[in-house]
Amino acid sequence: MGNATINQAKYENAILYFVQHCNNQYLGATKLNKLLYYLDFLNYRDRGKSVTGDEYYHMQYGPIPSSVETVMSALCESEKIKVTGEPFKETMRKIYKAEEKPDVTVFSKEEQELLVAICKEFKECSIDTIVAQTHLEAPWFYSMPHDKIDYEYAHSIEVLDGDEDDYFS
Q1: For residues 125 and 146, what is the distance between their CA atoms, to the nearest angstrom?
Q2: Which helix (H) or strand (E) holds 98?
Q3: Left if phi > 0, otherwise alpha if psi is -120 to 50, otherwise beta: which for 5?
Q4: How far is residue 39's CA from residue 35's CA, in Å, rounded to a whole number?
């Protein structure tokens, strides 16, 4: 599986990074969960370990990280991020505002490049599109509802699987 324990600094700064660089009308809780999923599973696929150390579970709208609420609470308590809500369809959509810039020095060069590539790939993706994408991939497809998703299936993810130099051209 991913790492043995949660890497709080990387987890918090990944969230801050996504909120700062992928924040548009599409970034709510569901999309943020998918961006974290891609960060962890693509890093596992390419380097053999997750970035945040979190576990992911098979839920209706795709993979959900188990510790995201705890990490988000810590970010809110430390006033690094503000979360508000606005009506969206029949629910409330979470709106994020980073009050602090992410500390990208906590990430390796490869992890920094992956953060950039994920934002470049998914920033303009609607929630429905990114959810549908995760449902087509082996990690979600081969897990059962509510079960933990096996990181070993990350090797089948085809998103951003070209030469890494192509991520930034």
Answers
A1: 25
A2: strand 91-98
A3: beta
A4: 6
In 3-state terms, the chain is what percent helix, strand and coil (to 5)?
50, 15, 35
- The helix-helix angle for 8-21 and 109-122 (nearest 10°) equals 40
Please name the residues in contact with 110: beta carbons below 8 A apart, sequence gap of 6 or more. 43, 46, 47, 164
Q: Quick one: tokens of 154?
A: 């990350």
Helices (H), 22-152: 29-47, 68-77, 109-122, 127-135, 138-141
Q: pLDDT by residue (tens digit) across 30-57?
A: 999 999 999 999 999 999 999 999 999 9
Instruction: Please name the residues in contact with 67: beta carbons below 8 A apart, sequence gap of 6 or more.
Output: 6, 11, 52, 54, 55
Which residues have CB under 8 Å from 105's CB, separation 6+? none
Using only C-alpha atoms, the chain has a radius of gyration, in whole angstroms, of: 15
Digit-coded pLDDT (tens) for 141-158: 899 999 999 999 999 999
